[in-house]
Amino acid sequence: MTGMADELVHYDVVGGTATITLDSPHNRNALSAQLRRELSDSLAEAAADDAVRVIVLTHTGPVFCAGMDLKEARGAGAGDQGVNEFPRILEQLWTSPKPVVARLAGPARAGGIGMVAACDIAVAVPEATFAFSEVRIGVVPAIISLTVLPRLNPRAAHELFLTGDTFDARRAVEIGLLNSATADLDAEVARFVKSLAAGGPKALAATKALLSRPRPATPSDGFEEMLALSAKFFAGEEGQEGILAFAQKRKPNWVPQD
C-alpha cells in the first residue's frame, strides 16, 4: 500500500462524480508500473460504486500523459514490458458502465492519446498538442490503435500514425479525437458531466455497450434484437420512472440534486 503522499493517482468522489487524477508530473504522467496499477484500481473502484454517475480523468502538471514510461521499458524483454498491462486500462475506460470524461490541460502523447480515445468525452485546452510518436522511436502504435482508430478520420489516422507529427487541439477536434477545445476547460467539463448525469444509470451503461457493438449489415438484421432491448427499458423500473417524471414535469430520481 502507498500513502497519500506516495500516490501517483488520486481518487475522489463528490456529488456523484469520481475524479481520477494522474499526479506524476516529474515524468510527465508517464505510464509507470505504479501509475498503471493505481489507475486501474481507481477505475475499478469507480465502476463498482453505485454512487458514482460520471468519471472524470484528469491530471496535475503541464502534461496529461506522455505515454509508456520509457525508462522502465529500456532493456526489458517482450514479456516484461509494461505495455502488456496497458490493454486492461484501455478496456476499463472503453467498457466502463459509467461515462468517462477526459480533461486535458496539456499535451498527450502515444499511450496517453490511447486513453483519451478510450474515454466517451474528451475536452482539452487550445494549447494542448498531440502526437503518435511511436514510429519516431521505432515502435508501433498497436494497442492504442484499437481505441484511436474508431474515433479518427481514416486519412488523418494514416498521416498521423505514419509521420508521428505533432498536431494541435483544433485539429484533434476536426478529426474526431476531441469533442471540444476551450480555454474555459472546467466549465466545459462541468457542462458534460451535468448532461451525462441526467441520463439513467442503467440506460447509460446499455447505451455505451450499444455504441461499441458491431453494426448489422442492414437495419433489418438488427431490428429484432434492438426491439427487445428497447421494450425492456421502456417497461423497466428506470424507464417507468423517467416516463413518470416527464409527465409530472420533474427530474427523474437518479439526477443528482443541485
Automatic annotation (TrEMBL):
<dbReference type="InterPro" id="IPR029045">
    <property type="entry name" value="ClpP/crotonase-like_dom_sf"/>
</dbReference>
<dbReference type="InterPro" id="IPR051683">
    <property type="entry name" value="Enoyl-CoA_Hydratase/Isomerase"/>
</dbReference>
<dbReference type="InterPro" id="IPR001753">
    <property type="entry name" value="Enoyl-CoA_hydra/iso"/>
</dbReference>
<dbReference type="InterPro" id="IPR014748">
    <property type="entry name" value="Enoyl-CoA_hydra_C"/>
</dbReference>
<comment type="similarity">
    <text>Belongs to the enoyl-CoA hydratase/isomerase family.</text>
</comment>
<protein>
    <submittedName>
        <fullName>Enoyl-CoA hydratase</fullName>
    </submittedName>
</protein>
<dbReference type="Pfam" id="PF00378">
    <property type="entry name" value="ECH_1"/>
</dbReference>
